[in-house]
Amino acid sequence: xxxxxHYSFREKLLIIISLIITFFVSGITFAQVESIKELKKDVQAxxxxxxxxxxxxxxxxxHIINTEELSKELSNVKTKKTIIYHIGFDFLYKQGHxxxxxxxxPASKQQGLEKIKEEIKNIKHDQDIVLYCGCCPWKDCPNIxxxxxxxxxxxxTNVKVLYIPDTFVKDWKSKGYxxxxxxxDSTAVKK
Length: 191
Hints:
The radius of gyration is 23 Å and the shape is elongated. By secondary structure, it is of the alpha/beta class. It folds into two domains: 7-48, no CATH class; 53-186, Rhodanese-like domain (Oxidized Rhodanese, domain 1). It has a five-stranded parallel β-sheet with strand order 1-5-4-2-3. The protein is 40% helix and 9% strand. It is built from seven helices and five strands; from the N terminus they run ααβαβαβαβαβα.
């Protein structure tokens, strides 16, 4: 080794080889590092829009639709028909839900996942689909992430999740968006 601050070509090469070996031994490839950087950019972009996400969320910003966007899409008869699945609890669906949405069962339970799989088996994989729950704040929802993963794992390519920051009642019903269901007046709006 030289005593100056400059490394010889051989020393530089050994450092580079050591770093490469370290990356591979730790299981991190350069592609994974780039993927993590992209994911962090998505999370930052979502957070800048006021959408609370977790780094481990299975979707990107392109797979999220907000309540205003979906309400406008539903009222536009010229848009392509989107299938909307409620993937939460049935008592919430019965209280009031997005018009035309299909109850598919809670994705947090195995029987719910089986019901979802049965419900979607005849749907084309390129069909536009929106998933929503609204049982609790988005960041804590036990259903939305698993439902999204299930659709993607089966091979559906045009799946979006409806961003409901707090609850369906607060973020859909209280804004006056269209609803259907039997018990619309008994659902209290949380503040």
